[in-house]
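Action item from last week, closing it out:
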Amino acid sequence: MVREIRLTGHFDPEALQAFAKARARLLAVEITEMSVSQSCFEARIIGEEALLGMFEMSCLLGPAGCIVTDVEDIA
């Protein structure tokens, strides 16, 4: 399954990118595209549906210092 997600908020881009890559490895999710700025995180991810949901939830919760104000699936 393929999913594209967008998180908006206040981010440390380097920390969020490293966090997302680490979580993707743990969950066996492939990130095929990723863009991170101080206010937006976008990623195209591939994997099992349940694991994609877990990846999205983990990005909503961490890392410390990153605050998500909105999330949406984009297509």
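Closing note: The mean pLDDT is 96.
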